[in-house]
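Friendly challenge for the regulars: who can give me the structure tokens for this chain first? No prize, just bragging rights.
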Amino acid sequence: MLNIIDRYVLRQVLMPLGASLAIGLLMLLAERLVRLLDTTLGKNNSFGAVFELLAYLVPHYLGTAVPAALFIGLLFGFSKISKSNELDAMLAAGIGLHRLAWPVFLLAMIFALASTLIFGWLQPMTRYAYRSLLFDITSVDAFYLAEEGVFMQSGSRTFILDELDRSNSTFKRIFLFDYQGPNGAETLTASNGVLIPVPGQTRPVLRLNNGHRLQVERWPTLSSGEEPVTAGVAEFTTTDTPLGKVAKDIFRPRGNDGEELYINELLSGDAAAFPEVTPDSFRSELHRRIVSILTMLLLPFLALPFAIGRARSPRAYRIVVAMALLVAYHEVIQQGALATRSSGISPWITQWLPLGLLAAFAFWRFYSASFLLGSDGLDRVLIPIQEFTSRMTTRLLALVGIRRENA
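First reply, four minutes later:
Bragging rights claimed.
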């Protein structure tokens, strides 16, 4: 049962946690949105495809945003409790830090279970769905990606449009060159035309009006005995030609990449069932996911000693150091998984060793903050940095004529 203090602690943590999670997801999705628009803009149901692709990316980004949001929520929540002297009052009442941290330990366990679902099944499923949909979108080069006055490539054809009206798929003055390899080439020019989607077909049709066609059946060679190449020239009132290219094969089945395997498939250890995935990649992916899930349980032990401090403690610097430590750890784990996948180095060295070191550091810091007296050793490093920064800021402000008032 959660008492009133537990609920208060959770409320202080959940508010910055929710804000961080929402902002982080929006920033990550907005960055990808720009790239997706470049790929899908103008295609049939392009905005629907963009939002579907973004939906598939949510579990991928949740794997990064959830631990970061939990860590930020713990830092800011307990920093607020400590800064307002509420922590001192609770300690004086006999409620230790380890008891105050109990509800956030429970919260971390819930997030670890959620991460198991995300890393174990949601991410592999949506990653494959994302790649499959993106393949379907990009397998046909669409006319809608054209720009006025810019040479564009569509399959074996290069074309340029003078004027383009996307509202009704019409254009004026087109030059189209179709390279046909040993069979020569075809050049088309037309005064105007329209793009016509064909029901049941994956490629649209260009209908050209009032144009000329130049057909070369083969390319000339330097052979002296070869007859000169003849070219056919014709005029046309209307002609239809398909635009784009269609992939010969459907998208590959799931399982060609270790990131697309469910965690139960990785735990089975049956790498032979997925011949496209190397044993090193199989092993690297399994250990990376387990380490990522277990990391969620360490975040309260790591965050709380950084969040609390004395009244004159450099809180902002402590939070910066904590965030930098988490980012560095995440990068070490990712690079360790890559090293195992590419070089076969044991994951116990590349991934479990960093986890063990972080766990030892986090438990030692939490134990010291909860049960030992004395100042935090981190303050002995950060306070001189804060004092130096404050002096330099005061001097810089003085150079521009601004006087800094002491608090």
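The chain is about 55% helix and 15% strand. The CA atoms of residues 171 and 315 lie 62 Å apart. Your move, everyone else.
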